[in-house]
Amino acid sequence: xxxKKFYPTKRYxxxxxxxxxxxxxxxxxxxxxxxxxxxxxxxxxxxxxxAKWFVGGMLNASYGCIDAHLHSWRKNKVAIxxxxxxxxxxxxxxxxxxxxxxKLASVLKKIGVEKGDIVVLYLPMIxxxxxxxxxxxxxxxIHTVVFSGFxxxxxxxxxxxxxxxxxxxxxxxxxxxxxxxxxxxxxxxxKLTPSIxxxxxxxxxxxxxxxxxxxxxxxxxxxxxxxxxxxxxxxESTHPLYIxxxxxxxxxxxxxxxxxxxxxxYNYATYKWVFDISDESIYWCTADVGWVTGHSAIVYxxxxxxxxxxxxEGAPDFPYLDKWWEIIEKxxxxxxxxxxxxxxxxIRYGEEWIKKHDxxxxxxxxxxxxxxxxxxxxxxxxxxxxxxxxxxxxWWQTETGGMMISPSPGLELVPLKPGSATLPxxxxxxxVVDDTGNPVPPGTKGYLxxxxxxxxxxxxxxxxxxxxxxxxxxxxxxxxxxxxxAMKDEEGYFWLLGRxxxxxxxxxxxxxTAEIEGAVVATPFAAEAAVVGMADPIKxxxxxxxxxxxxxxxxxxxxxxxxxxxxxxxxxxxxxxxxIYFVEKLPKTRSGKIMRRILKAIVQDxxxxxxxxxxxxxxxxxxxxxYEEFKKMIR
Length: 635
Ligand code: ATP
Ligand code: MG
Known about the structure:
The protein folds into three domains: about 300 residues, ANL, N-terminal domain (Rossmann fold, 3-Layer(aba) Sandwich); about 140 residues, Rossmann fold; about 130 residues, GMP Synthetase, Chain A, domain 3 (2-Layer Sandwich). β4 and β5 form a beta hairpin. The protein has about 625 residues and is of the alpha/beta class. It is globular. The chain is built from 20 helices and 30 strands. The strands form nine sheets. It has a seven-stranded mixed sheet, sandwiched between helices. The chain has a five-stranded parallel sheet with strand order 7-6-8-11-12, with helices on both faces. About 0% of the residues have low confidence. Magnesium ion binds next to loops.
């Protein structure tokens, strides 16, 4: 694609211009596409920085995701295909999903869960996780899903932040052939959490676990006396749907609160635009439901659309390296949504595993979570999509509730540029600004901001309006601050360059981590790279790079030289790194993102203690291990 100019098409520009100019009527039309019990009175009440969408409207998320399909042909179509790493499978039609959710909803009511209560879900990727989310919101309660890889301390912190009374968990999770003792972890967490009064326990193995009389209730026992139907509780549009803690890549996780109406409308609209989702789609998002991607892309958006979802419980490369491609072939997946970090792992393993499978059912491929380097993009396009499927590089955050900057082939396919998330979705007023909040000219780097409210935006940080204002609305007046570093090119395309607080300042230049990492993985032998700065008395910051090599390459100085050459030509001599380390692994968050802060502590020879206070407590052990491994590994 070198040398070609890409301009967004006229139709997209007109659509977007109209959406921004007539924001409320634009979103009102989208809101009409999902089921409501009562129509809203006001589209938007904007009490900056607090937005209320579709005020006065009444709806229920579980009704929209399930009941609404029961009067059509979708009633008996598959809603969920589930598979685990041992090859066990289950599937549920919409009518079966309805039955499971209603039964659990009646159980929750019986054990005292009321409208507005918070229910903590600490569950592996089993169908009961989806049932639990939908059962909770069916009765007007609010779920907070805690990723089941988190430790008891992290779980306890999140429970204590919400002071929830009820928790749903399972005896074990299964990953890489090992049983993860979830109930034991819960028992430890509950020693620190006085608020939890009842635990609903899903027994999925015959193994014995401790049961605390009076507190722990067995799911399958409770279901014996459950009712088959529970009236979905109509809730106000602004009633919270869920609370979800951010990944904690940059600091202490924040309890992000999402609304019911705005969140659902936004996700319904954007999944049509971006993924062209329909009731014929077989949609597989590989994220864990414990992250926002899982909430929107596994549960709410596809089910609202009456699509079929695929849920896989297991690691991408276990028990064999083509497990994922086998799943795509087996279920005829049409839309596949994953992370650049997973793709980079597969690049390391080579293409032979992919070639064993027929992936011709695929129509659209997506990525989320981190910038996707052009080389990884091309690899995905060629090897997974067979040069047939558009790639949607979707930029968004836990806070945004849904995708914000992305190609939208379901609306109109704008020309794609590998490595760019392309253009803001209709109604999203995104801009790149300088330190004073003024837009920067094309080609200049700056901070990514959103200038107008959108229906998917967070309602706030749970019980902390000041932190909400401070974190997102204090850096620039009247603009939502994303904390991401970006650039807009002459055609208006957005390029995400990394996190704003990880920008390197080298000899007067500001460089995003993604820029240098991109130049490293542009070499044929590097699979993954992480860049951090080290204080330098002359340059300000000197660049240090950690590189994972593809299989078949051995670390040596000639590779270092090639990396330096690639950086010098792609970015410039000023970005020449001070040090390059070849490593086997990089420290990552539980959601798979590289934790550059940890690397920074290492290169600056600061004790790991310096960062643990900032750190999501749960990963401390993991990080410590990663740190020790690093010291051993650095050659
Ligand atoms: P915390 O806010 O606690 O540090 P986090 O930011 O990692 O955690 P998420 O909300 O899961 O938590 O991630 C959102 C961030 O992920 C974005 O702000 C951005 O940095 C990055 N990101 C997501 N999608 C993309 C993308 N398509 N391209 C580039 N970066 C992306
Ligand atoms: Mg964030």
